[in-house]
Amino acid sequence: MAELQEVQITEEKPLLPGQTPETAKEAELAARILLDQGQTHSVETPYGSVTFTVYGTPKPKRPAIFTYHDVGLNYKSCFQPLFQFGDMQEIIQNFVRVHVDAPGMEEGAPVFPLGYQYPSLDQLADMIPCILQYLNFSTIIGVGVGAGAYILSRYALTHPDTVEGLVLINIDPNAKGWMDWAAHKLTGLTSSIPEMILGHLFSQEELSGNSELIQKYRNIITHAPNLENIELYWNSYNNRRDLNFERGGETTLKCPVMLVVGDQAPHEDAVVECNSKLDPTQTSFLKMADSGGQPQLTQPGKLTEAFKYFLQGMGYMASSCMTRLSRSRTASLTSAASIDGGRSRSRTLSQSSESGTLPSGPPGHTMEVSC
Prior knowledge:
This is Protein NDRG2. There is one protein chain. This protein is an alpha/beta fold. It has one domain: 3-Layer(aba) Sandwich (Rossmann fold), CATH 3.40.50. It has 13 helices and 11 strands. The chain has helices at about 20-35, 75-85, 90, 120-135, 145-160, 180-190, 195-200, 205-210, 210-220, 225-240, 270-275, 295-300, 300-315; strands at about 40-45, 50-55, 65-70, 95-100, 140-145, 165-170, 255-260, 285-290, 330-340, 345-350, 365-370. An 11-stranded mixed sheet has the order 1-2-4-3-5-6-7-8-11-10-9, sandwiched between helices. Helix 5 links the parallel strand 5 and strand 6 (about 165-170). The longest helix has 17 residues, at about 20-35. Mean pLDDT is about 80; it is low at about 5-15, about 25-35 and about 325-365.
């Protein structure tokens, strides 16, 4: 009797009619390259059409990184320096990314007709479920700047089960008060819309220095072909409602949150106040030195490192190698007073431009980090 031999049978993906294995492999490679380069989609919502670009392929049991940009920018001008940074590649290889352009902010967007009613920030947040349903994504980690940070926070308040974490840069959760309105109207009499928006994005020190970065973004905004659309988004931001965050109350963010602001940034006080209203066991506060009003543009390396620690605290990328802030540096860590008994502790990490590390671990502390 002939000896039986064990044969390994590998399951193959079914080929389309008339398709050879070689052409199937080429088609799969072409599709992967296309995904890596980004696919742009538009979806209709109850408040109009919204455009977004997807990079990479969804990873099993992992949320999508979901970004939303600030006024005067689109996803490229707001986030490209951060997501194209070398150390960020380790992150984006592990997550699919969705970059949203607010209506009328995408490249080549036509100018809205006169009298067009631009969506409020609350309505922009209500567009997000349509995007996730279109993509069949169940959860996200949001990364927002300015108006985008507000929009993602509003969405997280109404859909907490779909948000695993938030990175909020320059968030101002408060509605404009009477003094703010008066100052805004007075500024509007003496400044153009582009200059007002630049004052929102960058610190006065940066604007006075007129660096190459400032010149670049002043040119982008001043000569934007969709400047009328940008003004509509700007008006919606200035008409935002108060998020009414309350520490220990019902209205709060229930996911891990990393608040980020640059030193001497226009929104520094607002972010500090926001930090005081959120759950200290879920919130990290990152105050970045030498970063101005847009940390994701001026300090992408430090922000990438902080983002890695944030993801590690959420249970992702446990084996990630910290390469910038944690290598050959020393830290000075001071513990402050205990909050709510001994349940949590507020900590301050002081870093000079030459030394310091960020603490790892879950976001169980409120940390003010100056790096």
